[in-house]
Design brief:
four-stranded mixed β-sheet, four-stranded antiparallel β-sheet, Immunoglobulin-like, about 150 residues, 2 helices
């Protein structure tokens, strides 16, 4: 009986000791090499605008990497969103701008995006567009000219 109690105590002791492991050492943060695109904001907010308002907005970014950043392409999520990007490399520490033109003749909420591909390991980055375009008041109500149901003739 004494041997069984000793064996149980030994197993419990070993279980407790093995559970007390030290955490693995975390390696020091390594500095990123190569280009790195960092947005000032990933959201371009058009706010509440009227139909036909200025369609151009800008998304500003910085190359926080150690090598030149090249924007290879920028694509709007639909034909109503047209981006223009710099064709020359953005040097480390420099800022760049992607101009985004949205079709403000469309009435309603804006919920679109622009996908940007760079030389940063083939990663794609996304800018989201949001806002709302309201129609002119006279365009929201049909005109009653008194001849709605009158046939031509």
């Amino acid at each position: 009986m004494k041997n069984i109690l000793t064996l149980i105590a030994l197993v419990l002791f070993l279980g407790i000791v093995s559970a007390q492991t030290t955490p693995a050492e975390v390696p020091a943060a390594t500095k990123t090499t190569g280009p790195h695109l960092e947005w000032e904001s990933t959201v371009v907010d058009y706010g509440e605008i009227k139909k036909g308002s200025e369609p151009l907005r800008k998304a500003v970014f910085t190359n926080t990497g150690t090598e030149p950043l090249i924007i290879m392409s920028a694509r709007g999520s639909c034909g109503c969103t047209v981006p223009t990007w710099p064709k020359e490399p953005i040097m480390p520490g420099e800022k760049g701008v992607i101009e985004i033109r949205y079709d403000t003749q469309r009435v309603g909420p804006i919920n679109k995006s622009v996908s940007v591909t760079t030389n940063e390991g083939g990663q794609e980055s996304r800018i989201n567009l949001k806002g709302n375009i309201s129609a002119d008041e006279e365009q929201t109500l049909p005109k009653n000219d008194g001849n709605i149901l009158t046939p031509k003739g």
